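Async update (no meeting this week)

Hi team, since we skipped the sync, here's where things stand on the single-chain job. The sequence we agreed to prioritize is pasted below, unchanged from the tracker. I ran it this morning and attached the output directly underneath so nobody has to dig for it. Comments welcome in thread, and please keep replies under the output.
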Amino acid sequence: KLANVQTTALAGDSATMTTVAEMTWETVLRPSLLTVYQVAPERLELGTLYDNIRLMGSNTKTSRFEIAFWNKIFYPGAVLVMMVLALPFAQFQRRSGGMGVRIFTGTMLGLAFFMLGRLFNNLGVLNDWPPLFAATFPLVLFTAIAMGLLAWIARRYTKTPRRRPSGVRLAALPPRRAQLPVVGGQRGADPGREERLERGHHR
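Output:
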């Protein structure tokens, strides 16, 4: 609503001015569309980015808004790529050592993915690259790296036979002896012994 509004109506060669104390102004503009150049496109919502791109049309350079739009769409895919990229480092055995090196390497890969994404966003705006290419190339590249690492680990575990740990020997088990039946509370007693003793006693 507007207060103390003065309107001028043009009709032919004459102009009529009217003053209104309060008037409702109907327009297609929304407050979110007026913040196009005040807020960074990366911080805008997905719906707001789409409305801004459609509003500016082909008369304005919208590559930055389109790159931010595609980044928000493929953001869940980036999370999945980071999870897949962490799988090769989890396949190594703990006894092999180098836990700190693996953690450092994984951290550097995650930082490289973040920096490469920012680099391609800026290069896409400066060089007028296709927004979809600028937003998805780092994602595709690190997906290929993760799949390559997984394939390398799979080949390594299939070709390398499992070795017995050094210093561990299997002790030979002693041969099992045949167990004699238990007779008269004693193991290994002769079954006919008691009968022979009784015969000798009678004699």
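Quick observations from my side:
The mean pLDDT is 77.
The first helix runs from residue 46 to 56.
Reply here if anything looks off.
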